[in-house]
Amino acid sequence: MSLKSSTKVDVNTQELVFTVDGAAFDAAIEKAYQRQKKNINVPGFRKGKASRKLVEKYYGEGVFFEEAINGLINAEMPDAIKEAELELVDTPKIEVVSADVKDGVEFKAICVTKPEVAVSEYKGLKAPKNVKDITEDDINAQIEQIRQRNARIVSVDDRAAQLQDEVIINFEGFMDGVAFDGGQAEDFPLKLGSGQFIAGFEDQIVGHSIGDEFDVNVTFPEDYQMEEYAGKPAVFKVKLNAINMTELPEVDDELIKDTTEFDTIDEWKADIKAKLEQQAETRAASEFENHLMQKIIENTDGVIPKCMFDHRIDSLVSNFEHSLKQQGMDLDIYLQYTGMDMDSFRESFTERAENEVTLRLGLEKIAELENIEISDEAIENQLKEIADANNMTVEDVRMRLPMNDFVDDLRVNKAVEFVKENAVVDNTITSEESEEK
């Protein structure tokens, strides 16, 4: 391969012209012939037995050109890109300028290159880091959760139904004195106050006792999904069969000992408080980082090729589809449920893709400006972590990972840490301002 020229023809666009000599082209043709000959018929010869010259005479000199040229592109294009010192972000568009067995092949490739960006500011960025104080109300909310988890349902027969009770009812609905389809059920469980039924239905059960038979008068909402019922009054004849209530336990040392690894409620509460404080710290740190990364996006300037956004959308769609499959759902079915087509579905990822690509480029630029490098020891430590987590050897991991991308990821992560270490906590920035930025 000989690189004849490398010319910038547009923003992020380079034209390469390179050649492959006649000997290399002839060798590629021979390989194509050897691969295809077993399937070639030439009159007067058994299938696969005709020589290359006879095949070319019978079918034309260029019979193997296409496969040979494709093989040369795959073999020689990477060397041309490397010699031109280009970093591509899309598959190059290649044109065959000329092809001749004697003189070889000349190629022209239009290459979309990685953009050069500038980051106007990345040191001393300000962001809020508000760590929530853990209050007694937060502890009590955790106590209520453990009560709910250990609650039991008990039957009630000595009082009328109350909100939050679960009642078992028979009902049948009528409009203008005529029963309507779908308006009846027997032994239906309904939690009063859940809002499961039409507004007003559940409230009219409150105060009734087991065995009571009574009417419930309601009006269907104007926007009810069944248009023939929308806005119309209805009467439901109801019989109350049973009342159940949720009985919550007292949270004491005995309950804590039975349901947790702690012996006393004081030990459990201390642990809960410590965990809530850690969660609050983690949440604040995450919001701090998110705010800083948004600032990096805003401060990153450059012309970014659309193909980079498109490739990121491809990845996001693929990841989403994989997640759906793990849940037993097909993407086509999901699109039907949501009323979207593939174009609108892809469009929904546009803003996220643009932000992620811009952020990545900005962080890579910061890593370059700050001469951030990853030591061999750090690389080995990261590989070992992955290996241990997946029950593999370091060498297995190394063989499976694209190492250049892996090291680039480590540099980007280190750039994130650099931005955070050089940032300024400013809690005068409100959460609303943080979200806007």
Helical content, roughly? Answer: 40-55%
Instruction: Please tell me the overall pLDDT.
Output: 93
Number of helices: 14
Q: Largest beta sheet, briefly? A: 5 strands, antiparallel
Percent strand: 15-25%
Assembly state here? single chain
Cα separation of the termini: 50 Å
Overall 3D shape: elongated
Low-pLDDT residue intervals, each spanning 5 or more residues: none
Note the run of SSEs as H and E.
Answer: EEHHHEEEEHEEEEEHHEHHHHHHHEH
Structural class computed from helices and strand pairing: alpha+beta
What do you see in this structure?
This protein is 46% helix and 21% strand. It is an alpha+beta fold and 437 residues long. The strands form 4 sheets. Strands 7, 8, 9, 10 and 11 form a 5-stranded antiparallel sheet that branches. A 4-stranded antiparallel sheet has the order 1-2-4-3. β1 (2-10) and β2 (13-20) form a beta hairpin. The longest helix is centred in the middle third of the chain and has 35 residues, at 265-299.
